[in-house]
Amino acid sequence: MSEIDVVITEQCSSIREIIKYSGNSKNEIVQIKQRNSLSESFSLVKNFFRVVLLPYGYPESVSEDYFNYQLWDTAQAFCSSIIGAFTTRAVLKGVGVGDAQASALSAAITWIMKEGTGMIGRIIFAWWKGNGLDSDCKKWRIFADILNDVAMTIELFLPYISNFSMQVLCATSVMKSIVGIAGGATRASITHHQAIKNNMAEVSAKDGSQETLVNLLASFTSIFLLNIFSGTMSEWAFIFALMAMHILANYFAVKSLIFKTFNNQRMALVLKTYFNVGSVLNPQKVNKKEAVLLGSGLKVDFCGFNVHMGESLKNILNRYSLADFQQTLELYEDKKYIILVDIRTRQMYVSFERGETTETVVAAYFHAVCLAIATCIYNGIDLDIYSKRHLHHPTPITRLYTFMKSYEKSNIYQNIPHNHLVDFNEFVKQEYFMFYTAMEINGWSLDSHSLVMGEWRTNWKSYSKKTL
Fold first, then answer.
1. pLDDT recorded at residue 154
2. In Å, how far are 31, 376, 378, 404 from 334, measured between CA atoms?
3. Phi, psi of 231 (to 5 degrees)
4. Quick one: average pLDDT of 188-213?
5. Can you say whether the dihedral through the CA atoms of 133, 137, 139, 143 is positive or negative?
6. What number of other Cβ atoms are within 10 A of residue 298's Cβ?
7. What is the DSSP letter of 250?
């Protein structure tokens, strides 16, 4: 049947195979069969695994970085499962399995204590760091896997220090509980990012299927490897090689992620480039520059000012007189946030009305950064975000610098006077419109955000009307 006889084709996005239909001599519509039986058999096998392991509608139903991330995540899971098999053997030896003198009661108590300390560790870590797991998702993901390898390394030494098996297992159980919380929470955040068709449940389920298959294959492989390596130097060399591969695979996995929402570090990278160059970096470039190790990366302060959003104002309200504070409230009558500045400690407090949107949060952050830079210019403080070589280039920082030059500099450190801030707020409004447009053009999403936010919200408009 020639191509011209085809009347319609169809394609399932999950299977990707194109099926063609044509008319025949009996005036019926029939499917054009594949002539290559080997190719057809291969396609059936490939399509079976695609449907079983990948989300419905792949690749259109997931983010563009899905394949690369899952590939590296599969590699790290395989390595981790094999290391886990060697660790399990070491732990069983350490608690006395196979030792005629070992007490079953002693082993049971050790195991109960191990599980109990792990449960306590989960509760404490979730309370301590739960709020920051979304913001630094990549960093906590890497941290969790490194900590997991550290815990397994300690457990591998358990047969040599079996007299301290309870203490060692309790310590490693706490470490693994942190791994469980950090790894599980960051995995949920990554799944939310990957599920672009509101299909988070299915993406999560298929991720679980992929991991189960990998663990199954790793388990069978481990049976073979456990018989080959048994307490020799080659075993340690093999395990440490696997750990290196595990960490490396995790690094490539998180580096392959392309988040299109802002956290503090991505926002800092975008803003510092935008103020100096006048263009917004796209998500691909920003994610490539984003650090993935805890304690590393670009500083998120601007000109020495730290921006605190959604935190209590009790630490800064005593810096204001009642009259100054009321004048400040007037400046933000048309906004859903207020910004209070502490010039002495270089702190910016941004407080929101209840029900703030992502766009409001980003606008407030941008406003706070502009105010931090303007406060430094007004007080003659050197700008770490600004270079004089950019003086003749029309960028946001030069426009801000030119705008602030019209105001007389202060001889003592002080906040910008309220009468100047009226015009300044209008200037920021125009600048934010240009920044917002650039964000949209370059593919940033304002549907959600991962900026660090406190839980405090304020109500000032109903009270200011009574007192002003």
1. 96
2. 64, 25, 25, 23
3. 70, 25
4. 94
5. positive
6. 14
7. H
Distances in Å between the alpha carbon of 65 and those of 194, 208, 255? 8, 18, 10
SS3 30: strand
Tell me what the mean pLDDT of segment 143-164 comes to.
94
β-sheet with 29-31: strand ranges across: 6-11, 18-23, 29-31
C-alpha 257/C-alpha 278 separation (Å) is: 26
Beta bridge partners of 349: 308, 340
Q: Are 438 and 274 in contact (CB under 8 A)?
A: yes
pTM of the model: 0.86
Q: What phi and psi, each to the nearest 5 degrees, are found at residue 84?
A: -60, -35
A 10 A CB-CB count for 57 gives 14
- Report the distance separating Cα 351 and Cα 335, nearest Å: 11
Please name which of 397, 432, 382 lies closest in space to residue 273, comparing C-alpha atoms: 397
Measure Cα distances from 7 to 12, 16, 34, 67, 326 in Å: 17, 19, 17, 34, 74
How high is the pLDDT of residue 1? Answer: 43
CB of 161 within 8 A of CB of 168? yes
Which structure tokens are listed for 360?
């409001």
The pLDDT score that the predictor gives to residue 468 is 47
Nearest to 427, CA basis, from 402, 410, 408? 402
Residue 340 to residue 468: CA distance in whole angstroms: 18
Extract the tokens encoding 72.
């590296």
Residue 198 sits at φ, ψ, to 5 deg, of 55, 40
User: Coil, strand or helix: which one is 169?
Assistant: helix
> What is the structure's pLDDT at 43?
73
Q: Average pLDDT of the chain?
A: 88
d(CA 6, CA 109): 72
CA distance 51 to 34: 21
- According to DSSP, the β-strands at 347-352 and 306-309 are parallel
- Report which of 447, 437, 295 is spatially closest to residue 366, judged by C-alpha positions: 437
Residue 350 phi/psi, 5-degree rounding, is -110, 120
Q: Model confidence over 75-90: pLDDT tens digits?
A: 999 999 999 999 999 9
First vs last Cα of the chain: how many Å apart? 84
What ranges make up the beta strands (E) of 179-310? 306-309
Q: Which of 53-67, 222-236, 241-255 has the highest mean pLDDT?
A: 241-255
- β-strand 29-31 against 18-23: which pairing, if any? antiparallel
Cα 318 versus chain centre, distance:
36
State how far the alpha carbon of 136 is from the alpha carbons of 114, 170, 350, in Å. Answer: 29, 28, 21
| Ramachandran assignment for 262, one of left (phi > 0), alpha (psi -120 to 50 degrees), beta (any other) | beta
Q: Is the dihedral of CA 404, 407, 409, 414 positive or negative?
A: negative
